[in-house]
Amino acid sequence: MTSDIKPAFRVDHAAIWSSLPAPAIIIDASETIVDMNPAAEGFMGNSAKWLRGQPIWDRLAVDAPLEKSLARARAHGTTLFVNDVDIGTGNRVPVMCNLQIAPVQGREQGQGGDMILLISPRDLVGRLSQSRSGTSAAKSAIGMAEMLAHEIKNPLAGITGAAQLLSMTLTGDDLELTDLIVAESRRIVKLLEQVEQFGNLSPPERKPVNLHDVLGRAKRSALLGFGAHMTIIEDYDPSLPPALGDSDQLLQVILNLIMNAAQAANRKTGGTIRLHTYFEQSYNLRPAGGSGQSLPLQIEVIDDGPGLPPDIRSDVFDPFVSGRENGTGLGLALVSKIISDHDGWVSVDSVPGKTCFRVSLPQAPRAPREGS
User: Fold this and answer.
1) Which CATH homologous superfamily contains domain 18-123?
2) What is the pTM of this model?
3) CATH fold for domain 207-361
4) Run of H or E residues at 252
5) How many other C-beta atoms lie within 10 A of the C-beta of residue 45?
6) Distance between CA 328 and CA 141 in Å, rounded?
7) Of 65, 66, 346, 367, which residue is 20 to 30 A from 227 by alpha carbon distance?
8) What DSSP string runs through 115-174?
9) Are strands 297-303 and 354-361 parallel, antiparallel or unpaired?
């Protein structure tokens, strides 16, 4: 008796392999790369075609002793789990990940068969949820600060005027005191104006934007002013398609990130800033309860400065958080707000000697062909 029941679907292993959201890499007995999925190509910053045949540990740096554990897992055909470990490549700073290494099924056990490495970066999920959960609190803080800024500016103008009138009849040390009152009052007014500007930022007027044009404008502006002591290197993907965004607001983002790097550097010795762009199809933003948003366009602003202070590293995009003396803490908060308004994502990885701010943006829709 034969059954007329047909399978509901046919398993397409190639499609499943390509659809895996986590980076997956297959290595052989000599620990060279055999294959990798598209998510791994994005993580490694190179194509599978180029990486095949290369020693895995020349391309992947894992901050944990794996040799004995990996050999044991290979010999016994068991799975090795390594949690909370920093994993980096030559193209990106280390990020905290969970790593799973397992034998590829169907191979001969105990004879050095192929193994699969599954990498689960922890920063993407953690920072996305952190940034989304903190959005309401950040908006409330900015709203309160904007209201206070408006109320404080008027009495400050009176204090400044009174100090200027007093200075007309004073000399010596007393005159220095009134000059100090005027200077500090003007500094506070400037800070309050920045707060008001932050709160009054208009929604982006989104249209196709050439990101390399934006980066070029930011570089020229920086080298003529606050970044004159820096060396700025361009490392662009020439095939990068247009982004969907507001060019003026994105220019403000890049300027703020370059300024942040320039201010962290030594004014005498300077430093190097690398502007890096690339396309990574595996980046997606999925808000709670919402549908996924593809963010394939990547901009990285990388500097060789001292790195972010550890105590503010996780809060650096919050308003009024600054690692510099007399810093306002609004530059990176403005970056976060603009990128959030663009339905994008911004993150930072920082260690002494290398800080990388990464901006991920949506791609502009392709223009329909004539006659289609």
Assistant:
1) PAS domain (3.30.450.20)
2) 0.54
3) Heat Shock Protein 90 (3.30.565)
4) helix 247-264
5) 16
6) 14
7) 346
8) EEEEEEEHHHHHHHHHHHHTHHHHHHHHHHHHHHHHHHHHHHHHHHHHHHHHHTT--HHH
9) antiparallel
